[in-house]
Amino acid sequence: MKIAYKVWLDQNGKAFGDGPYELLKRVEKTESLHQAAKQMDMSYSKAWCLIRSLEERLDFPLLGRKVGGPSGGGSKVTPQGKTLMNHYKRFRKEVEKDLEKIYRKHFDDIERKKWK
Amino acid sequence: MKIAYKVWLDQNGKAFGDGPYELLKRVEKTESLHQAAKQMDMSYSKAWCLIRSLEERLDFPLLGRKVGGPSGGGSKVTPQGKTLMNHYKRFRKEVEKDLEKIYRKHFDDIERKKWK
């Protein structure tokens, strides 16, 4: 047996979580929401709507326009978006570590005894 | 903003979680899976199938037959089921407390600053 979980930030609905984090991570790398969405097997319109709904709930922009460059622009993560990503990353790592520990504390012993 | 999460025990699929805990809790009180399901707005057949699939994954019985009594029988939680419930209850409480703490640690400060 093992622990399973989903965790996210809520503000009148899902405001941030693993999926959005992954998407922004890929925007940072590719500087393109098109590319980021494609890498995640997500349609561009779905990715766009997701970002817009998160921004509405968070009340700050996650993506900005990158102007110029050889490819003629693209998307970039805003400073506020980066701050959120950094906090979320550390938060998420600690959640994982702690939940695993709590699970082991409460179930390891009883599992070894095969629930007798 | 706040933290939101779902947590459950997995063994080749969902093996136990808040819903099953609540259902068993009500079986303990009512000594009837019928009554317990009804209180949770769940059909008896759905509750029955849920219990069977959990038992299959856990590899031990959760419910047994209560024989006799004025109402002529009913359901009762097995000793293994009770052990699971007790462990789950303590596990769940600690999960809640810890996740709230981790959330505050990583987001309280930045929220106060309004993500500036």
Largest interface: A-B, 33 and 33 residues
What fraction, in percent, of the residue positions of chain A are helical? Answer: 55-70%
Rounded to the nearest angstrom, the radius of gyration of chain A is 18 Å
Overall number of strands of chain A: 4
Order of helices and strands of chain A: EEHHHEEH
Number of helices of chain A: 4
Q: Give the oligomeric state of the chains in this entry, treating copies of one chain as homo and distinct chains as hetero.
A: homodimer
Q: Which ranges of chain A are low-confidence, i.e. pLDDT below 50, for 5 or more consecutive residues?
A: none
Feature tags:
4 helices; 4 strands; alpha+beta; homodimer; two-stranded antiparallel ribbon; 116 residues
How would you summarize this macromolecular structure in one to three sentences?
2 copies of one chain form a homodimer. Helices cover 59% and strands 18% of the residues of chain A.
Tell me what the structure shows.
The structure is a homodimer of 116-residue chains. Chain A is an alpha+beta fold and 116 residues long. Chain A is built from four helices and four strands. In chain A, the strands form two sheets. In chain A, strands 1-2 form a two-stranded antiparallel ribbon. Chain A has a two-stranded antiparallel sheet with strand order 3-4. In chain A, helix 2 packs across helix 3. The first copy, chain A, starts with a strand and ends with a helix. At the A-B interface, strand 1 and helix 4 of A face strand 1 and helix 4 of B.
